[in-house]
Amino acid sequence: MTRRTIVVALAVVALVGGLVAWGAVWQERSTDAARNGAVVDVTDSGTVQREVSTILTRVLAYDAGSPDQTRAAAEELLVGTARDEHETLFASLLERAKDQQLVMDVEVQAAAVQELRGDEATLLVFLDQTSRRATDQEASVAAAQLVVDARRDGDTWKVSGLRVL
Q1: Are 127 and 144 in contact (CB under 8 A)?
Q2: Which strands sit side by side in the sheet containing 120-133, from one edge to the other?
Q3: Topology of the domain covering 36-164
Q4: Which of 25, 33, 43, 52 has its CB surrounded by the most CB atoms within 10 Å?
Q5: How far apart are CA 124 and CA 147, in angstroms?
Q6: Do 120 and 150 form a contact (C-beta atoms < 8 A)?
Q7: DSSP 25-61
Q8: Model-level pTM greater than 0.90?
Q9: Residue 145, pLDDT above cutoff 90
Q10: Nearest CA to 128 among 161, 95, 105?
Q11: What dihedral angle (degrees, nearest 10) is formed by the CA atoms of 64, 66, 71, 74?
């Protein structure tokens, strides 16, 4: 083998090795997990988690003495099918709660961002809902697990879908 053949062979090996390494890096970055902001963007994940928890606390709480607060929160913070679903539930609640003077509080126990892609997120949320009837002071606590879809609207997040598990 001549010196020139050895140099050419080494250049080809280096080029092939570089292409293989580049391909491996590209493939790793293009995996589903690498594109999911919930896995790679702690700051955005934390923001959507906090904002959605606050939204749920506001729109799922209810006080028979001031039902307009819940309705106003829903109009401000819910979009798409979440707003329609909430309106249906809220109308049913109004019918049942008026005579009982019902008060419901919500506390998010845990929320985790499952998927975050651009301006859309999906979260799994565990919450407790405490209800009290002013008529007899009877109280109860119910746990719920929800899949929540959220959409960024400018600088804030809004809930766009709710599914009870």
Answers
A1: yes
A2: 62-63, 102-117, 120-133, 139-153, 156-164
A3: Nuclear Transport Factor 2; Chain: A, (3.10.450)
A4: 52
A5: 5
A6: yes
A7: HHHHHTSHHHH-HHHH-HHHHHHHHHHHHHHHHHHS-
A8: no
A9: yes
A10: 105
A11: -100
- Kindly report, residue by residue over 103-133, the tens digit of the pLDDT: 889 999 999 999 988 899 999 999 999 888 8
- The Cβ of residue 49 has, within 10 Å, a number of other Cβ atoms equal to 22
Task: Report CA Rg, the chain.
Answer: 26
Q: Are 124 and 114 in contact (CB under 8 A)?
A: yes
- Candidates 121, 165, 129, 122; CA nearest to 146 is 165
Rounded Cα gap, residues 119 and 48, in angstroms: 10
As a whole number of angstroms, the distance between CA 31 and CA 151 comes to 23
Interatomic CA distance for residues 11 and 103, integer angstroms:
76
Domain definitions of the chain by residue range: 36-164
Task: Give the best-scoring range by mean pLDDT among 23-37, 60-74, 82-96.
Answer: 60-74
